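Risk mitigation, structural track. In case the binding assays with iron/sulfur cluster fail to produce interpretable data, a predicted complex structure has been prepared as a fallback.
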Amino acid sequence: MPHTPLTTLSEIVSPLLSWYRANARDLPWRKTRDPYRVWVSEIMLQQTRVAAVLGYYQRFLSAFPSVEALADAPEERLMKLWEGLGYYNRARNLRSAAQTVVKVFGGKFPDTYEGLLALPGVGDYTASAVASASFGRREPAVDGNVLRVFTRLTDCHDDIGDPKTKRTVRERIESIMPIEPEDIRVFNQALMELGAVVCAPGGPPKCGTCPLAEKCLGRRRGTAESLPVKSPKKARRTEEKTVFLFFRDGKVALRKRPRDGLLAGLWEFPNADGAMDETAAGVQAALWGLTPGAWKRRLTAKHIFSHVEWHMTGYVLKVSGDGPEDFFWADRPELEKRAIPSAFARFLNETKTILSENDTGGNLEGGSLSWA
Ligand code: SF4
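Fallback model:
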């Protein structure tokens, strides 16, 4: 790493703090030092945009205003409140960490980086962010935003996907961190804020409005826009699926996903591997013990997870029969109570429309497809 001398690097602190104090966005989790609230916000913000988190954050804290309330949260309620945020293990880890805080620490959060790191779902970044924001600990919180700002500032061309690079950046930031708890708190947030709004991803950095422009090696050398260096991700694999919207007596069939793996324990529409044509889909329905009555519609949808992409073909059909034991037949109010991941959003919307049509006298007869 071509290093900027430490004396120069430490010169970023003062302009950075002043800039943040004058320009920081007004976000609810910045108005508190309560570790519970800071921690909930940090977990929600992982892989999720600020704008998307705002509403969820307020609703979640109204439902679970304390770590004790979260520790006692019923699974369905927890998942329902998380519905649409994705990465559902975050919600489960939140609850198990809350249970640990209540059982092991008597409801008080550990106030050190190491103590926080021991909680389920809390990694290096979150432990540092909570330790500094809530307890004024001198712990650099290095996320993607900070890595981008720092590699540009120091004209560092090391691969940020390499844990060694992250460790080095963390050490270098720690070496220039302020001493006063209030400044520590602001310093971490200021680096992240700069990376979110000025030295931001997806476009050229806004060096003209950057408080660190004078000190920035990447800007001076014209390399900033090509930084950070990141080795290409492995290609996502594609999975084909066929999703079934089975309707019976104003109800739709749902089932619960397995306890482990992708979208564990959430509700879904029955589905099977592969892109089935009508004939195969009819056979699958029969294998589940259902007798198809009328086809309504064929739908397609795509959902991208971090490592896999689902390409889904969906069939809407009216059936008779109960289906397997794990099918649950939900009317509209029951559907509203259940957390169905956004991977199925297209199908969920269609289901809501159909159930509403049924409410108002519409029905599923006369579909556009017929049995092959
Ligand atoms: S001067 Fe430009 S490249 Fe350097 S930190 Fe500021 S916005 Fe980023």
